[in-house]
Amino acid sequence: MSARLSVEDLAFGYGERVVGAGVGFDVAAGEVLCLLGPNGGGKTTLFKTLLGLLPPRGGRVRVDGEDTAGWSPRRRALAFGYVPQAGAGQFPFTVREMVLMGRTAHRGAFSAPAASDHAAAEAALERLGIAHLAERDWLRISGGERQMALIARALAQAPRVLVLDEPTASLDFGNQVRVLEQVRRLADGEGAEGLTVVFSTHHPEQAFAIADRVALLHGGRLARFGTPEAVITAAMMREVYGTEVEVVAVGADGMRVCLPVGLKRPG
Amino acid sequence: MPAAARRGEVPFALTLGGVAALLVIAVCVAFSTGAYPVTPAELAGLLAAKLGLGSAAVAPAVETVIWDIRGPRVLTAMLVGAGLAASGAAYQGLFRNPLVSPDILGVSSGAALGAVLGIFASLPVLAIQGMAFAGGLLAVGVVLAVASAIRGRDPVLVLVLGGVVIGALLGSGVALLKYLADPYNQLPAITFWLLGSLSAVNRGDLAALVPPVVVALLPLVLLRWRLDVMTLGDEEATALGVPVRVVRIVVVAAATLMTAAAVSVSGIVGWVGLLVPHLARLMVGPAFVRLLPTAVLLGAAYLLAVDTLARSLGPVELPLGVLTAVIGTPVFLWLLAFGKRGWS
Fold first, then answer.
1. B8 or A5, greater pLDDT
2. Nearest residue to A96 via CA among A140, A144, A142, A152
3. Does B228 contact chain A (CB < 8 Å)?
4. Cβ(A23)–Cβ(A7) below 8 Å
5. Could you list the residue range(s) of the whole structural domain that residue B270 is in?
6. Mean pLDDT of chain A
7. pLDDT tens-digit profile of B3-30?
8. Are A137 and B4 in contact (CB under 8 A)?
9. Count of CB atoms situated within 10 Å of the CB of A135
10. What angle is formed at CA A132 by the lines to CA A131 and CA A138, rounded to 5 degrees?
11. Are strands A221-226 and A213-218 parallel, antiparallel or unpaired?
12. Calpha distance A200→B265 (Å, rounded)
């Protein structure tokens, strides 16, 4: 299968400061890539560079083989859907209005949303199971509901690549699981062609649960890239995070988890 | 109570119709207030006659009052109010802050310095207005130039802080000119201008005000959907496909043009651009497609009502800027205490 998203020898940073360099990987359509790495490892900067919010310091990003350098924001928005860590909206839009904003790139600068845009927004709300929230005030729904709405907005955008920046940060356990399930479903496509998904997290279990590939970003370099089983090992966790863990298979499916060694209350 | 439910109770068309009715009432009251009251029937009769529908059954004196005296003042008050409210609505969204008013980037202080300089140099009235207009545009131009020279920082923050700093500098320029001005002749004129008034407005002022307000309103109307996306901040708006720098420049230019045109005719009239969009948002929600028409009509009605009060409350006219502040402060405090739902 040909790569949908190709990152080639990418260098990235803010202004004069180069945060990372030499990062390269491929992700196919329908695949989920999990980006792991310690704080300050460059995950957020890499995301912003992928999305074109920051200019690359070197190398290139390709979507379906096309170099994204020089693309307009509109063209980028048709290729990449972005789910920010916390939506920055401060106005009491309804959830429906917020999701409808995902259609911005699909219509002219001066034109009102067409019937097709309204239909896409409704479909996205349905698909995420939050149609009942449509009329609710954006500022008065829970963090989990807001995360779902942001994913619906990115979905209404009809992108080829979905980028999620720590989608489960600040969510309770149930909402974390629901968001991860949705992310996996969007990659699988359920009949339609699946999306390429890139998400970042601090929890290795999430990579074991839904990712096809893991990219480990450490000190601005791509320290490891491969399947979750190959990348997330006790040796890697010691080297990168400085913690002793045991990687064990649990449950009926034998899903792996990282258990910290020696983290135990006395007695 | 969620905003949607609140909005659901009163459909948008009904709200807008209500605000339009308020405006019509304000117009009728304004015409019937003053030394020579004009009834709504006389007003309607003259308008019908001018449009070629029936003959003018109106006394010539009434026609003069409507056409040359009160009419221009009423329309100017409406345009100034509408312009300030529209720019305030655009700026509050663009800068994502409820405390933003149209003069956040220094347009009022630039206009003030221009006008005061004109009065100081004993220029004719038209030149003073021109200097106020140019001063307002120039001040915002400097702020924009400073902001684009400073890179690598939050562009919105740089713009707002740049506006505050440049505004303070221009304010000290105004203070210096007041200190140097002739205390018997120029100083009262300067004070009068800085307090804001529509008492000297004529048809020429109105003619000068209409083009910039209409020209500046157009991009705001056209970009109404993009302005909603801009309220999400630069990063999200860019990721949704909006060229944020271009949209910001266009909106800032439009709001500046409108505000500079308004204050060059009326003098400094505070609070309208801050309060009216806020109230409009509480009524119809934040979506610009509904917010803009509501704010425009409400701003027109509000400033017309305040101007009518200004010229009828006492034996001498009260300064407009003082009245808008006296009315604005309690309303704003009320919003702060009870109206928070619209924001957080």
1. A5
2. A152
3. yes
4. yes
5. 3-342
6. 90
7. 444 444 578 999 999 999 999 999 999 9
8. yes
9. 15
10. 90
11. antiparallel
12. 55
Q: How buried is B235 (Cβ within 10 angstroms: 0-12 exposed, 13-18 middle, 19+ buried)?
A: middle
Q: Max Cα separation, chain B?
A: 67
**With a cut of 0.85, is the ipTM above it?**
yes
Residue type at position B83: G
Residue with tokens 């009320």: B334
Q: Which residues of A touch B232 (CB under 8 A)?
A: 87-89, 101
Q: For tokens 């339609």, name the residue.
A: A192
Amino acid at B144: L
What tokens does B82 get? Answer: 């509408």
The CA R_g of chain B, rounded to the nearest whole Å, is 21
Domain count for chain B, please give it: 1
Place of tokens 């038209």: B126
Mean of per-residue pLDDT scores for chain B: 89
Q: Are B160 and B104 in contact (CB under 8 A)?
A: yes
**Chain B residues close to A72, C-beta within 8 Å:** 243
Q: CA of B344, closest CA in chain A: separation in Å?
A: 6
Could you tell me the CATH number of the domain that includes residue B222?
A: 1.10.3470.10
Cα separation, A91 vs B323, in Å, equals: 30
Cα B205 from chain centre: 15
Closest approach of B224 to chain A, Cα-based (Å): 7
Tokens representing A244 are: 């002793």
* Residue A192: count of CB within 10 angstroms of its CB: 8
Task: State the Cα–Cα distance between residues B2 and A135, nearest whole angstrom.
Answer: 9
